[in-house]
Amino acid sequence: MRKLENKTAIVTGGSRGIGANICLSLAAEGAQVVVNYAGNAKAAAEVVDKIEAAGGRALAVQADVSQSAEVKKLFDFAEQQFGKVDILVNNAGVVHYKTIEETTDEEFDRVMRINTYGTFYGMREAASRMADNGRVINISSSAVRMMLPTYGPYCGTKGAVEQMTRSFAKEMGLRGITVNAVSPGPTETELFMDNPPEKIERMRNLAALGRLGRPDDMGPVIAFLASEDGGWITGQVVPVNGGTA
Q: Per-residue confidence at 193, pLDDT binned at 50, 70, 90?
């Protein structure tokens, strides 16, 4: 029997990059997956098609996680289609590479609302609606510990995610719900690879293993934390970064 058989997972930002691989990894272990997307319906449909082609079950649903009503809609959809929610992966996020001085109010509000508010709304909904013995997995970033210039606003959002993860683990533990964060390093996603070549090479050289991460480095770790095998891990930030930080 696969490790996540009969479990239902919501993955925010599940249409591309790391999020898409998380969806595929959870489905490979038997989970029914709600693939959330913000605007790219075609990419989300492709993830669903891959899961179904492999014999799994998945549905795509549009929702803007920066809006609390939209996150509630995600949980409504999962419950209506699959009956319950066992796993929540708060993956949706945006990057922001500017100094604090250069960052406008509007830019800071956007990155904060998607990265931090979106994760908060997901956890708040999970607090009352997730099945006992469930799993909440938030996505942070190894940049939080790297003291990189132009990452300040972005790291601020992810640092908040890590602290909420630790507190929420204490709040949910007596129901058997674990709450962890995974902290990827520089990863070959569409967003990251849009950086200048010299920056990409510099980041590659920071890893002890001598390469950038790949989306498929992340999904199996998420699937482990979502399974019973990961049931004694909670309140932790797990670096998945090839020794970058």
A: confident
Q: Would the pTM of this model clear 0.85, i.e. be above it?
A: yes
The pLDDT tens digits of the residues spanning 129-187 come to 999 999 999 999 999 999 889 999 999 999 999 999 999 999 999 999 999 999 999 99
What does each C-alpha distance from 73 to 22, 155, 186 come to in angstroms? 21, 28, 32
User: What's the CATH superfamily of 8-240?
Assistant: NAD(P)-binding Rossmann-like Domain (3.40.50.720)
Has 154 been annotated as catalytic?
yes
Which of helix, strand or coil describes residue 3? coil
Single-letter amino acid, residue 111: V
Q: Considering the candidates 37, 121, 151, 154, report the single residue annotated as catalytic.
A: 154
The b-or-e profile of 56-72 (16+ CB within 10 A means b, else e) is bebbbbbbbbbeeebbe
Q: Does residue 14 sit in helix, strand or coil? A: coil
- Residues with Cβ within 8 Å of 83's Cβ and at least 6 positions away in sequence, in order, are 8
